[in-house]
Amino acid sequence: MIEIVSNRRTERAVLVGVCLPGSDRRETEETMRELARLSDTAGVEVVGQIVQERAALDPTYFIGGGKVQEVRRMAEETEADVVIFDDDLSPAQVRNVERVVEAKVLDRSALILDIFAAHARSAEARTQVELAQLEY
Question: Distance between CA atoms of 66 and 52, rounded to whole angstroms?
Answer without folding.
Answer: 11
